[in-house]
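Morning, I've got a small favour to ask if you have a moment. It would help a lot if you went through both lines with me. I owe you a coffee for this, so here goes:
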Amino acid sequence: MRYMKKIALAGLLSATMISSAWSSTYPSKPIQLIVPFGAGGVTDTVSRLLAKGLSTQLGQPVIVDNRPGASGMIGAAFTARAPADGYTLLVGNISTLAINPLVLADMTYDPEKDFESISMISMQPIVLVSTVKQKLSSVQDLADLAKNKPGGLDFGSGGASFELMNAAFMKDTGIPMTTIRFKGDTDALGAILSGNIDIMLSSLSSAQAMANSGKVHAVAVTSTERTSLLPDTPTLHELGVKLEASSWQALSAPAGTPADVIDRLNQAAKKVLEDPEFKKLFEQQGVTASYTTPQDMQRYVEAEQKRWAAIAKEAGLKAQ
């Protein structure tokens, strides 16, 4: 029995030593950073900025790989099935890590079980935009437009998170609309520009330039206070709508990734996200850099999952 215990202990120590030695050489090759949305959107933008910073900190190329589709499910599922070795990472967001299970019935991954938290990346307000010709300035304007337009209003959705926000907005205002799904913010904003849809909720970073140039009309922001990037745009609270929401991005690895690797990635992310010059680059895109420990990220994501589950229940929205 003692002999067997010695063998077991030796095996455990050997495995620990091998793991430690392997982790100390990490990374020894390029890292794939999966972005589950198309190019041009906020998640893609912050991912490319982060990849550049991580490449410097880790001494290996960090390559952005866009795998859009199904509200981020394709890219998220790809990452979930990847080897848990730290060489395939996911830039998830409010949709992929919190809201998808609430609105999509055919989930191909489990956001609660399939990933290890590394760090939050960024936060940004959401803005309600409409076509320029409508110039909506109140909920009553929107109600009148819905009443007078044959077939009602089309409410664009650039992802699962926006679909849930749309449902909450419609419940708060009592204005029925038809939600039209798009692959991401960029496609939905294109539909606003062409007049194919009437309104949409978009991340501020995606819509800011168009709003400031007059290509789309910013109706309101979903934050509790006005943003300096759109100072003349009121909050939804000012318009009598209680919906409050922020968009966010976070860095994750496949479940089972060694703790030493998670710590290495977290420390690299900390140096990038807390660098003043890097923060300025984020601010120029309408987002705020947001470093956290893995534990704090996990707590935040879990809180968001619970919060949006309650909102979905209140809005009567079911996965489909």
Observations:
- The first strand starts at residue 31 and ends at 35.
